Amino acid sequence: MPEGHTVHRTAGQFRKHFQGQPVTVTSPQGRFTDASAISGTKLLKAEAWGKQLFLTFEPAVLRIHLGIYGKWGWSASHVEPKGQVRARFEATGQLADLRGPTACELLYFDEVGLLTAKLGPDPLRPDIDGAERSRFVERVSRSRVSVGQLLMDQSVLAGVGNVYRAELLFRAGINPYTPGATIPAELIGQVWDDAVQLMSIGVKRGIMLTREGHLKGQVKKDDRYYVYKREGLPCRECGKEISIAIMATRKLYWCGVCQR
Length: 260
Known about the structure:
Elements: H1 4-17, E1 22-26, H2 35-38, E2 41-49, E3 52-57, E4 61-65, E5 71-75, E6 85-91, E7 94-99, E8 103-107, H3 109-116, H4 131-141, H5 147-150, H6 162-172, H7 185-205, E9 243-247, E10 250-254
Antiparallel strand pairs: 1-2, 1-6, 2-3, 3-4, 4-8, 5-7, 6-7, 9-10
Helix pairs in contact: 1-7, 4-7, 6-7
């Protein structure tokens, strides 16, 4: 499932190619039956909140969540739809095809606020006064749930998925089974700050990078992470074998020495 930085990159592409102009919206697959309600109207705004993409058109807001199977295809010219295209967006020679999303639905403007109110703070959204950082720290600090589960809860922290969860906890030296309420608030705040840094790099570079010394330049895929998908391999820091377990149906990776 794409993590938050990918959705923010997609929002940026919509702002670049479509914002401020009329957009033709169709559904070659036929499943997005409300396409005609926004087709031909201007795209006023494109923004991401966690793993949710919101495209604000003049009549309504289109909410898109890629889920596990959703993906985008981009082209600079008109091409015939290939595969099951849920929604197609076209303007001034630019084309974007959406396939396989979990959600592609129109919302009234007041419904957007009700939905985003249920989402946690997003490290990639503006946080000028630090209120979102404080909200994250407070939500983790008051919970007896393991921090490994909390970081995957989109009402606690929006946009973080399995990769960033594993890497943020390793970088902070926190065992994923530690209850949130037992972690010092200062350390929880450092996790937020680290998420802001790493996810911003993801937006800029288009890939996840989490290892110090590898945050710039060309990096091989196998060298990007400390623990993610490295079960059975030696920890890059201490040499102990990286552990794997299932937490709330998702694979969990950690080092039992570096993360106590």
